[in-house]
Amino acid sequence: MTAETPKMTALTPAQAAKILAAAGSRRITEAMVRADIDAGAPANADGTVNLVHYTAWLAREVTGGD
Fold first, then answer.
1. Which DSSP helix (H) or strand (E) runs through 56?
2. For residues 35 and 16, what is the distance between their CA atoms, to the nearest angstrom?
3. Helices then strands (H, E): number in the chain?
4. In this structure, what is the dihedral angle of CA atoms 36, 4, 18, 50, given to the nearest 10 degrees?
């Protein structure tokens, strides 16, 4: 990992959106990630997101919390 490589536990919303968009077939934007944070998605105190925690939150949202 280089100094430019973001840590999975502290991604900006833009970085998280880029990774998630590349990993799936759905379009996701920084604005969508920010909207999720505003809706209760977990975020770090500095506004970054832990990709594992965020995707777990997304999965719970899709399944209705099950």
1. helix 51-62
2. 13
3. 3, 0
4. -30
Q: For 9, which DSSP code?
A: T
The pLDDT tens digits along the chain (66 residues) read 566 666 888 999 999 999 999 988 788 999 999 999 999 999 999 999 999 999 999 999 988 876
What pTM value is reported for the model?
0.80
> What is the total count of domains within the chain?
1
The structure tokens listed for 23 are 């990993």
Range(s) of the domain holding residue 53: 13-62
Token representation of residue 34: 């920010």
